[in-house]
Amino acid sequence: MAPGLITLEIVPFKVAAYNKVKRAMDFYDPKNHQDYDFISGTRMRKMAREGENPPDGFMAPKAWAVLKEYYKSLEKD
């Protein structure tokens, strides 16, 4: 329960980040902090705008192509 809010239950969640060793998204393990790259939404959008590709395993290639195409289309406006 949340202090003072007796009807509110706090639900814990795991943080996901890109695991550079596994080359895939993974639940963050603070014992291996150096293995993770936290790719923020801001950084992801910047990469898409600049036509860069994310690291392998970060996102499905077809989904990334859609994202890049969307940002490319914004430049035409």
TrEMBL record:
* Keyword terms of this UniProt record: ATP-binding, Nucleotide-binding, Transferase
The record's Gene3D superfamilies line, in alphabetical order, gives: HUPs (3.40.50.620)
Q: A Gene Ontology MF term for this entry?
A: sulfate adenylyltransferase (ATP) activity
Q: Which domain of life is it from?
A: Eukaryota
Q: Where is the Sulphate adenylyltransferase catalytic domain?
A: 2-70
Q: Which GO terms describe its biological process?
A: 3'-phosphoadenosine 5'-phosphosulfate biosynthetic process; sulfate assimilation
Q: Which InterPro entries match?
A: Rossmann-like_a/b/a_fold, Sulfurylase_cat_dom
Please state the pathway this protein functions in, per its UniProt record: Sulfur metabolism
Q: Which SUPFAM superfamilies match?
A: Nucleotidylyl transferase (SSF52374)
This protein's record includes keyword ATP-binding: yes
Keyword Nucleotidyltransferase (UniProt) = no
Protein name (database record): Sulphate adenylyltransferase catalytic domain-containing protein
The scientific name of the source species is Eleginops maclovinus
